[in-house]
Specification:
Blueprint (H helix, E strand, L loop, with lengths): L6 E5 L5 H14 L12 H5 L8 E8 L2 E12 L4 E3 L2 E4 L4 E6 L3 E2 L5 H15 L7 E9 L3 H9 L6 E16 L4 H8 L1 H17 L4 E6 L5 H12 L3 H4 L9 H12 L5 E6 L2 E11 L2 E9 L8 H15 L6 E3 L6 H6 L2 E12 L2 H26 L3 H12 L5
Parallel strand pairs: 6-8, 13-14
Antiparallel strand pairs: 1-2, 2-3, 3-6, 3-7, 4-5, 8-15, 9-14, 9-15, 10-11, 11-12, 12-13
Helix pairs in contact: 3-4, 6-10
């Protein structure tokens, strides 16, 4: 690629409607609409059903009049929690410019130049962050443009500091082959047999009264939200971690908006008409994204989560809108690895201005994280980790009052 004009990263004006139209035209030139992660670059998806354009911040790299690089963020107030185990010691204020994935460049940009352009992005954006602001890249590919630039810049750049949150992990995906049979062969004989056995056992225990429903239309949102929430509130994620699928009118409005755009595609398994497992997901372009899932712990021995995952994949193969990819979302889980047929290593990183406060904040996070992990390793070494984990989950996986 030969340079044909001035190279410069600039921020798109999305706040005012008239300027936004121009900015969206520029974004449309460069943002991907197909493939893994395309949803995360959609400005419309980020603004959401409320049209929160004040929180959407997008940057474009132009060479002359041509857009060759792009990255959008959603600004959210999310404190950086300093924890020991499940206990929060401190939670300093932090506004995160949140992006899932990497900087995006046009296919014409060669790899070596994309690293240079990523460094230019950091030089242009980080100095303008406020005192309590940071860039947050969730699921940043280890072999991607920005991570390569961070590795190169770390020795020379004193304008920012980088904090990795958690360990590097394998992000699991499915690349759908032409047929379901070909996909099943990729799982291996042991996995195929286990899934067949689980499906037969569930059908037998329920006297055949097992069904899976797909929810896509706006009028189906309310029932999906109610039934998924009923399942989720029985899980340890809900009761112990304050996570899970939480039904609210705001969420239903968001899901109706998503379904009106043709993106909503979620599933619930019913056993004897009782909701026992759910998968909340969306299809954007040619990729299906699983955003959340859960199952009733009373049905854990019947492997309802695995059976539902298999039924979902079968439905995607059989449908008219068959995707090319399935994204299991960031983070690693053994169930994701069981169904995925390829992966990439990713990490979650904060990029903060190198102020004294932020350097101390980084030291505090690294210190508490190391102490917590060291304690877990000690408990594991003496054989108590698995027992404590089972006890906590068993006591927490109860319906909330």
């Amino acid at each position: 690629m030969e340079s044909t004009g001035l190279l410069q990263w600039s921020k798109l004006d999305l706040a005012e409607q008239q300027e936004r139209r121009k900015a969206l035209t520029v974004a449309d030139e460069i943002m991907p609409t197909e493939g893994i992660g395309a949803r995360h670059y959609s400005l419309e998806w980020k603004a959401g059903h409320v049209g929160d354009w004040q929180s959407v911040h997008a940057y474009v790299l132009r060479e002359g009049n041509t857009a060759i690089g792009f990255v959008p963020f959603l600004r959210r107030e999310r404190p950086l929690k300093l924890t020991f185990g499940e206990f929060t010691i401190a939670a300093p204020r932090l506004a995160r410019f949140w992006m899932t994935g990497d900087l995006h460049f046009a296919p014409s940009v060669p790899p070596e130049r994309s690293i240079e352009f990523a460094s230019m992005f950091l030089d242009a954006v980080v100095p303008n962050l406020g005192r309590h602001e940071a860039l947050f890249f969730e699921g940043l590919p280890e072999q991607g443009h920005l991570h390569a630039a961070l590795r190169q810049d770390r020795a020379r750049n004193e304008a920012y500091t980088v904090l990795q949150l958690g360990d590097t992990y394998e992000h699991q995906f499915i690349k759908f082959p032409p047929s379901l049979d070909e996909y099943m062969l990729q799982l291996g004989s042991r996995s195929r047999q286990s899934l067949r056995n689980s499906t037969r056992r569930l059908e037998k225990e329920m006297d055949g009264a097992v069904r899976v429903e797909c929810f896509e239309q706006p009028e189906s949102v309310s029932r999906f939200a109610a039934d998924a929430s009923a399942i989720s509130r029985k899980t340890y994620q809900w009761n112990l971690l304050d996570l899970g699928f939480r039904d609210s009118e705001g969420l239903r409005t968001r899901l109706r908006w998503v379904s009106e755009h043709g993106w909503f595609r979620s599933y619930i398994m019913y056993c004897r008409d009782v909701p026992v497992a759910f998968m909340w997901g969306h299809q954007f372009g040619d990729c299906y994204y699983i955003d959340d899932g859960g199952y009733d712990p009373d049905y854990a021995k019947l492997s309802v989560g695995s059976v539902l995952q298999l039924k979902l994949i079968e439905h995607l193969f059989a449908g008219t809108k068959r995707p090319r990819f399935l994204d299991f979302s960031t983070g690693f889980g053994t169930h994701k690895g069981r169904f995925g047929n390829f992966s990439r290593r990713e990490l979650n990183v904060l990029i903060l201005p190198a102020t004294l406060r932020n350097r101390l904040l980084k030291l505090g996070y690294v210190g508490t994280d190391s102490l917590s992990k060291g304690t877990v390793r000690l408990i594991d070494r003496i054989g108590l980790k698995a027992k404590i984990k089972r006890l906590i989950r068993r006591s927490s996986a109860q319906p909330a009052d």
